[in-house]
Design goal:
mainly alpha; 63% helix; globular
């Protein structure tokens, strides 16, 4: 049989399987930021669904390729470390907030309030689902499972997480930080999640820690109306 066309190769590699969900999410975020408040036909906050849905569909399509998600984590000690890591990153995220610790502003804001100031539970549920379920899986597959190992070896699936170099760990954390407005907290978060994956060898622990961080952040944002974090 002939080799598949180059276009199809963009969807047929292990790297693309881990990159496409993230790329679709970021592209939709850029679209939300470009539209801003110009969308008057409907509530533009629902455009957040355009970020979550394509990424979720891509994760489902490429799921058979994610062999790192097949091993169920079962270590009590690793779960304790996971909870500690997720909580620690949450604390770092809300405390490392000085002006020099930030770069730019969030591309698109999200304030789930009605005109009278009351909370919109439907919008909170949408945002929380994206932040706690979709984003941790999508980002850990891309940043940790793919990029962190790829820096050391192009055939990244052949590299055990425990054998990732310190350079790859720090470099991937640095790039991860550039995707967030809070760069210092982002660097430290990338290091924490990366170390957890490197130490345990199982991506689910990093995903769970990331999900816990985002869940705690969501609760804190809603409870205190800290919308600048969303």
């Amino acid at each position: 049989m002939n080799a598949p066309p180059r276009l199809f190769a963009l969807f047929s590699t292990d790297a693309s399987a881990r990159a496409w969900p993230f790329a679709l999410f970021i592209a939709a975020l850029a679209l939300r930021g470009a539209l801003g408040d110009t969308t008057t036909a409907f509530d533009q906050r629902w455009l957040y669904a355009l970020q979550v849905a394509p990424a979720l569909v891509a994760l489902m399509i490429f799921a058979p390729r994610f062999d790192e998600l097949r091993a169920a984590p079962a270590s009590a000690g690793a779960w304790a470390a996971t909870i500690g890591a997720g909580g620690a990153v949450f604390v770092l995220w809300i405390t490392l907030d000085a002006a020099w610790m930030r770069i730019g502003q969030p591309v698109a804001s999200f304030v789930p309030q009605a005109a009278d100031g009351s909370l919109r539970l439907d919008l909170i549920a949408l945002r929380s689902f994206g932040a706690v379920i979709v984003v941790p899986i999508m980002e850990e597959l891309f940043w940790r499972s793919f990029l962190m190992r790829w820096i050391d070896r192009r055939a990244f699936r052949e590299l055990a997480p425990q054998r990732v170099s310190w350079f790859a760990l720090m470099a991937s954390a640095g790039v991860f930080a550039l995707a967030h407005d809070r760069w210092l907290a982002g660097v430290l978060a990338g290091l924490v999640y990366g170390l957890l994956y490197r130490h345990t060898g199982k991506l689910w622990y990093a995903i769970a820690a990331h999900a816990l961080t985002n869940g705690l952040l969501a609760a804190w944002v809603v409870a205190g109306a800290h919308w600048e974090y969303w």
